[in-house]
Write a structure and sequence with these properties.
This protein is of the alpha+beta class. It contains seven helices and four strands, in the order βααβααβααβα. A four-stranded antiparallel sheet has the order 2-3-1-4. It binds ribavirin triphosphate (RTP). Ribavirin triphosphate binds next to β4. Its EC number is 2.7.4.6. One of its GO terms (molecular function) is nucleoside diphosphate kinase activity. Its cofactor is Mg(2+).
Length: about 150
């Protein structure tokens, strides 16, 4: 199976009307959409998603932020999508994220940084299983195979 990553537009991204902008960047890059849903997140679910950060001082604020409004959960597929997805997103702290990245263009606060992307293939698999227990959507592109090398 081709590489997949889990991407989440956080509540501030949804509230600020950045959903189409984020999707466009992944779509135009050439990645394939395999899953997409708008949903509210329960506290226990947010704690599970961020369980690796549970000892961090910002953990409770982070969970509160994620449950404050709906998020858009997505699965994107394609060559090196985990790493390239992180490049498209930009550094965690928007003060360090380059212009041209999503956070570099649309965020100033680390605690309101618009978007999440899996940081490894292993975490992507774990996050996709957590967020899409129903599975993702299988579909075959009608584009000519020449479009990829
Ligand atoms: P994400 O999981 O959201 O893609 O972010 P990341 O890998 O770039 O960063 P990570 O270290 O996993 O942190 C997860 C999210 O926690 C918030 N954060 N706040 N106040 C702080 O010092 C702080 N540090 C991290 C950010 O929203 C970050 O995206």
């Amino acid at each position: 199976m081709a590489e997949q990553t889990f991407i989440m537009i956080k509540p501030d991204g949804v509230q600020r009307g950045l959903v189409a902008e984020v999707i466009a960047r992944f779509e135009k890059k050439g990645f394939t959409l395999r899953g997409l849903k708008l949903q509210n997140v329960e506290q226990a679910f947010a704690e599970k998603h961020y369980e690796d950060l549970s000892s961090k001082p910002f953990f409770h604020g982070l969970v509160h932020y994620i449950i404050s409004g709906p998020v858009v959960a997505m699965v994107w597929e394609g060559k090196s999508v985990v790493t390239t997805g992180r490049t498209i997103i930009g550094a965690t702290n928007p003060a360090q994220s380059a212009p041209g990245t999503i956070r570099g263009d649309y965020a100033i606060d680390i605690g309101r940084n618009v978007i999440h992307g899996s940081d490894s293939v292993e975490s992507a698999q774990k996050e996709i299983a957590l967020w899409f227990p129903e599975g993702t959507v299988q579909w075959k592109s009608s584009l000519h195979p020449w479009i990829n090398e």
